[in-house]
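Render chitinase in 3D.
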Amino acid sequence: MGFSLQPLFLAIISLLMISALTRSSEGAGIAVYWGQNGNEGSLEGACRSGNYDYVNIAFLVSFGSGQTPELNLAGHCIPSPCTFLSSEIEVCQSLGIKVFLSLGGSSPGQGRGQILASPEDARDVAAYLWNNYLGGQSDSRPLGAAVLDGIDFDIEYGSNLYWDVLAEALFNYSTAERKVYLSAAPQCPIPDGYLDTAIQTGFFDYVWVQFYNNAPCQYTSGDPSKLFASWDQWASYTGVNTLFLGLPAAEAAAPSGGYIPPEVLVEQILPVVQSYPKYGGVMLWSRYYDQNYSTAIRPYVNGDPLTCTTKSVKKSHAVA
């Protein structure tokens, strides 16, 4: 033949490189928590970084059991309402990013309201969330008129009762026109002490497990075996639909360990977890700590298309 394949080859390589750096709504993605440090920049800035596919606004710290709902966004707006965020939420959504409200918190102070008194209380909380943050109607929407995509459960204190009822009630607000997405952020030990029953309902679209601050199931320097063993369990756990690897974005983000340097994540961890059908991506705590971490791993979250690394790696690691 009289033509050269080199221009075609170069064009294909260019397209592959572009696809590695571009978010794919159908592929794996990165989730991040935003809202717990006033120095982390704006919500719109996080979304315009191009590094995230899901943003959890953290946290609604009090709700249920007759308490007045309390939104705590640290230095961003105290007290709520934070209605100025409405336009920023809509910018995020226009970029294809799903925005969630996260319930709970990671300290006893934040978690003081993480108690549902009864099934009726759970359904009342669902109605409150629907009307004030999702597709319902209220005169006092704390984040303004913007309609969030879903609700995240980050329950780490309080009671383990009726979270399944809350998940079902929220799930039932979905319509053909607008789906209410649900996510959960359990600790990596199985079963999770608070969300286990809820997760097993299968109502959660995404489960981003916290593989940090938990010695029995997190990465330690040079040893991924505990992490792999836990991931293997979660990947076959009842009710888990799409599984994310939840990690700290810096060593300071996880005082009790679990930080994985980005080069180790890319070279040793992602090729293994991506070989599981339920792999959905990486969750990071948090935007404040994420200085360059998401930038470093972004091209590899879906696998490196130039080497097809994740397609060739098999689950040959020890999980015992």
